[in-house]
Amino acid sequence: MALRTYAEYIDSLKKMRPNIHKFDELIEDVTTHPAAKYTVEGHGKTYKMLDDPQEREILTTTSHLTGEPISRYLSIIRAPEDMYANSRMKRHMFHLAGTCTGGRCAGWNALNAMYIATYEMDEKFGTEYQNRFLEWLKDAQARDVTIAGALTDPKGDRTKPPSMQDDPDMNLHIVERRDDGIVVRGAKVMICGVAAANEIFVLPGSAYREADRDYAVSFVIPRDIENLTMVETRHPSDMREYEEGFDSPVKDGGITQAYLFFEDVLIPKERVFMAGEFEFTGNAVEYFIAPYRAAIGACVAGQGDIKIGAAILTARANGLSSKVFNDKLVRMHVNNETTYGMGIAAAAMGRMHPSGAWICDMLLSNVNKVHVAMLPYDTSRLAQDIAGGIGETGCMPSYKDFNSEKYGELIKKYMKAAAPAEARARAARLVEWTTIGAGVPGCMHGGGSPDGAKLFIRATADLEKKVEIARKLAGISEEILESTPRKK
């Protein structure tokens, strides 16, 4: 089996050991519980749509390992065209689900990062990590599993490295090495889409030094492995179980985040891809963020498309022509295509790694991350501006009140404009969803902070080369050195 059906995907989740909690309650079935079912349905679209040949072309590719059809979320980037296709898919999935499918997206970045990092570790140390990784990947492709990615550690005191923390568990680490695997303790936090995942791919959270060797760890586990406890975070989607009709405009999409607590979890040897090779932790993180920060521009462009459509629907329902908002609409389109196009450029300007994988350009990927931390918020502001108060102030009655036998007809009478009251309400709720509600992705810190991206930009921008170009053009023969900043 290479591609699962939607029914098989849902069945695979139902069979998993319950280990996700929310509001102090164990979620027995993620496919039906209000806190998890929406993200499951959103991710489920990656399976449900495969019966349509056009959707299948977007969502699948051919495994370079087996020659079989596989999900793009389980593929290795081997050419810039693979990144173009992935960006196209991510934008498209926003159109289908109304929000992100991070429970597959981050896992895809993680497996691509470790495909390269395992190759490099084997080259230097003579380990067998990549063969181990490839055997797992072929099996994962054959089972067509949904894989979440887990990078972020709690970190504790940000001024101290992991080995200097008062509590050593502030970063996930190895506490025991055994013949059959390793035992790990600690946590990964703010991890996207785990409720919809079959497995979780764990990476080191940062670049570490020799003193932090035990924190240099990467592996993949079943989501329901013993001694792993997860807690879903409070999220804008939390009220959806109480909402009906247009109050919850997207019925089969949503994203969740979770804290993952590892309490001496045994990781089988065949699923361990890094265990102490601290020299390659920085590489692994870079190989993760390069495709992530390139393709996230497509994610926010996909949601930007929805913001534009919802804003214009609301304006038309209000009786206004889209031509009134021409400058604002152009700005919104520029925002969308800037992040999308920058991601495509990062792929095009990338390089081939000796492993056969394609690495996106680090400078352009991080420039895109900075854009993603700003432009979608401008698009949201403009969508709210175009929609008017009904789409932004939260001053619209609920669906239950709208249909009240006591006063529902009055609400409908006074909410009616150029379009019927319910059509106007549905459009306005979608503006809310995409700009201030549960449909908002992590633009500011998803895929890392913009300040972190700026550090990468400074490191990869080759500033001195630009200075040398300017010095020669200006006819300056002297070398003008950088001064040392004065201490305050």
Topology diagram in text:
Blueprint: H1 6-14, E1 20-22, E2 25-26, H2 37-48, H3 53-59, E3 60-62, E4 69-71, H4 80-97, H5 102-125, H6 129-143, E5 147-150, E6 173-178, E7 181-192, E8 199-202, E9 217-222, E10 228-232, E11 257-268, E12 272-275, H7 281-318, H8 326-348, E13 351-352, E14 358-359, H9 362-372, H10 375-387, H11 399-402, H12 408-415, H13 421-435, H14 450-460, H15 463-473
Helix pairs in contact: 1-2, 4-7, 4-8, 5-6, 5-7, 7-8, 7-9, 7-10, 7-13, 8-9, 8-10, 9-14, 10-13, 12-13
Describe this structure in words.
There is one protein chain. It contains 15 helices and 14 strands. The model has no long low-confidence stretch (mean pLDDT 93). A hairpin with a 5-residue loop joins strand 13 and strand 14. The termini are far apart. Helix content is 45%, strand content 14%. Strands 2-1-10-11-7-6 form a 6-stranded mixed β-sheet, with helices on one face. A 4-stranded mixed β-sheet has the order 5-8-9-12. The chain is globular, with a radius of gyration of 24 Å. It is an alpha+beta fold and 488 residues long. Helix 7 runs parallel beside helix 9, helix 7 runs parallel beside helix 10 and helix 8 runs antiparallel to helix 9. It folds into 2 domains: 276 residues, Butyryl-CoA Dehydrogenase, subunit A, domain 2 (Beta Barrel), CATH 2.40.110.10; 179 residues, Butyryl-CoA Dehydrogenase, subunit A, domain 3 (Up-down Bundle), CATH 1.20.140.10.
Q: Considering the protein shown, what is the CATH homologous superfamily of the largest domain?
A: Butyryl-CoA Dehydrogenase, subunit A, domain 2
| Total individual domains | 2
The CATH class of the largest domain is: Mainly Beta
Q: What is the beta-strand fraction?
A: 5-15%
Helix percentage range = 40-55%
With helices defined by DSSP (H or I, 4 residues minimum), what is the helix count? 15
- Radius of gyration, in angstroms, nearest whole number: 24 Å
